[in-house]
C-alpha cells in the first residue's frame, strides 16, 4: 500500500489496462479523468478520488479505496477500487454486445465452406465447368496470322 501513486501506474496495477504504456496513452488522449478533470499520466492518485476511464462506448467510473504500485491478481482488485459506473452506461455496453445477434437473421452473412460447396453443387459447377481449348478453337482459325 502506498499513499500517492501515478495514475498510469495505478490503472495498470488494478488491471484496467493491460500495460502501463496503454494507460499512459489513454491519459494523453484525454480518456482518463480524476474528479471530472482530464489528467496527465504523472498525476497522483489518492484514496477517495473518482477515476473516469472512457473505453468506447462506455465511460467507466471507479472510486479509489486504497492505492497500489504493483500489479495484483484479479481477486484483489475489489479491495482497491469500487466500480461506480452508472447503470445506464452498462446497459449501453450490454445492448451493443447483443445487438450483433439481433440484427442478423439466420442465414445472412458470410456463408460457411459447407454452404459454398452446396451452392456450387446446386449451380452445377464442378470440375468439368471449364471449356477445353481444343474444343473452343477450330483448326482453320490461326491465332498467329495477322
TrEMBL record:
A Pfam family: S4
CDD domains, sorted: S4
GO function term, MF aspect, one: ribosomal large subunit binding
GO biological process: cellular response to heat
Domain RNA-binding S4 residues, every copy: 5-69
Keywords carried by this UniProt record: DNA-binding, RNA-binding
Entries under InterPro entries matching the protein: HSP15 (IPR025708), S4_RNA-bd (IPR002942), S4_RNA-bd_sf (IPR036986)
Leader sequence residues: none
Highest taxon, organism lineage: Bacteria
Family: Belongs to the HSP15 family.
Gene3D superfamilies the UniProt entry points to: RNA-binding S4 domain (3.10.290.10)
Name used for this protein in its record: S4 domain protein
Amino acid at each position: 500500500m502506498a499513499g500517492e501513486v501515478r495514475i498510469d501506474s495505478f490503472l495498470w496495477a488494478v488491471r484496467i489496462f493491460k500495460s502501463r504504456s496503454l494507460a499512459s496513452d489513454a491519459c494523453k488522449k484525454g480518456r482518463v479523468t480524476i474528479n471530472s478533470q482530464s489528467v496527465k499520466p504523472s498525476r497522483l492518485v489518492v484514496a477517495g478520488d473518482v477515476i473516469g476511464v472512457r473505453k468506447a462506448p462506455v465511460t467507466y467510473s471507479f472510486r479509489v479505496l486504497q492505492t497500489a504500485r504493483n500489479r495484483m491478481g484479479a481477486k484483489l482488485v475489489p479491495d482497491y477500487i469500487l466500480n461506480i459506473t452508472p447503470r445506464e452506461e452498462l446497459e449501453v455496453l450490454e445492448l451493443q454486445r447483443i445487438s450483433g445477434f439481433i440484427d442478423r437473421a439466420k442465414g445472412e452473412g458470410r456463408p460457411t465452406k459447407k454452404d459454398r460447396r452446396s451452392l456450387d453443387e446446386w449451380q452445377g459447377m464442378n470440375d468439368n465447368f471449364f471449356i477445353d481449348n481444343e474444343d473452343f478453337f477450330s483448326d482453320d482459325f490461326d491465332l498467329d496470322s495477322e
